[in-house]
Amino acid sequence: MTLRSRLILTVLLILLALGAGAGLRFARFLRQPVEPPAPRLVAIPAGATLSGVASRLEAEGVIASALQFKILGRLRGSARRIKAGEYDFQAPAAPDAVLGRLIAGDVRRLKFTVPEGLNLAEIAAKLQAEGYGDKTVFLSLTRDPAFAASLGLDASTLEGYLFPETYTLESGTPEKRLIMAMVEQFRAHLNPDLKAAAAERGLDVHQLVTLASIIQKEAGNEEEMPLISAVFHNRLRLRMPLQADPTVIYGIADFDGNLTRKQLHTPTPYNTYRMRGLPSGPIASPGEAALRAAALPAAVDYLYFVSRGDGTHVFTSTLKDHNRMVRRYQLHR
Question: Do both 171 and 137 map to the same domain?
């Protein structure tokens, strides 16, 4: 064998050995789960390259080698399939499992709860305080008549139409998408039977939601909602003012928590002491029980109710009895 042949053979053997070593290291890389030194929240921006993702994961201690992770990604044809979002890494995971999560878009899921009876401003403030969105953007959308119309709602704002529920969000969910999900939930709970029952009592959908929002704010518990609804239906039928404090409060800019006699006599589109009928729109987001009560009031002749101070109310049919209950439960407190 010539010197040149021996040199070629030696080089080939070295390359073969190096290749075998690299193959063994890559096989070990694939098999070896990596546990981050602490729980890691890794944000993958939209448009991130496989190289950039791999470097970030290695820096966070989620994988052992960015280079080998890139090779894995190339072999699987995953360079352009990684989805943006925030990923939560805590438990040990092999590189293939990590890549699988990135391709599936297994991003961190967040819970945002909207309790019954919150208005748009309160929902927006809660959204921002919990880090799920910008309240200015949220209010701009929910108070835009054109946006309401695009959702098929005959309303100038979305007040009352954002259904109280716990919503599961991905990190970075746009405010618009969340709002659309809330309206979708509202539609799901306002079934045809409720709309038909409301129509029998002369209420269209907007009036139903408006009345339900008042019931939601007045009621201390769900059991009393049909009774409170009956009071308001009876007053509407007799053309008596509803005289609901929550509507007056809603119409006061920067309400300080103290409802005064002057405010009760100040005309606004929501002052149901000064006007007959329903106010111009909802004052909060009613839940399913309040919507049902608004459409299906109890069959009673009550015209008045007064708070006992413990979350429940006394219901009466005459002004004389009402004044007596006011003296008992309100004036003596």
Answer: yes
Query: Cα separations (Å) of 244 from 17, 158, 211, 259, 332?
Result: 86, 21, 11, 12, 21
Q: Is 0.70 surpassed by the pTM of this model? A: yes
Domain match, 214 and 295 both: yes
Q: Which helix (H) or strand (E) holds 320?
A: helix 319-326
- Which two structure tokens, joined as six digits, stand for 172? 């970075």
Q: Give yes or no: residues 253 and 228 share one domain.
A: yes
**pLDDT at position 4 over 50:** no
Number of domains in the chain: 3
- Find the domain containing 131 and state its range: 110-189
pLDDT for residue 88 is more than 90: no
CB burial of residue 121 (10 Å; 0-12, 13-18, 19+)? middle
Distance between CA 69 and CA 103 in Å, rounded?
14
Rounded Cα–Cα distance for residues 303 and 139 (Å): 36
Domain finish residue from 51, 80, 104: 104
Let me know: does 288 contact 216? Beta carbons within 8 Å: no
Residues 181 and 243 grouped into a single domain? no
Question: What pairs with residue 42 in β-bridges?
Answer: 87
Helix (H, G, I), strand (E, B) or coil at 73: helix
Indicate if 216 and 150 belong to the same structural domain: no
- Mean pLDDT check: name the lowest of 27-31, 99-103, 207-211, 322-326: 27-31
Q: Are residues 232 and 172 in the same domain?
A: no
Q: 193 vs 79, 109, 198, 285, CA distance in Å?
A: 51, 34, 9, 20
pLDDT tens-digit readout, 40-78:
888 888 888 999 999 999 999 998 888 889 988 888 887
Q: Establish if 7 belongs to a structural domain.
A: no
Mean pLDDT of the chain: 88
Asked if residue 137 belongs to a domain, the reply is yes
Residue type, 264: L
- Asked if residues 108 and 170 have their Cβ atoms less than 8 Å apart, the reply is yes
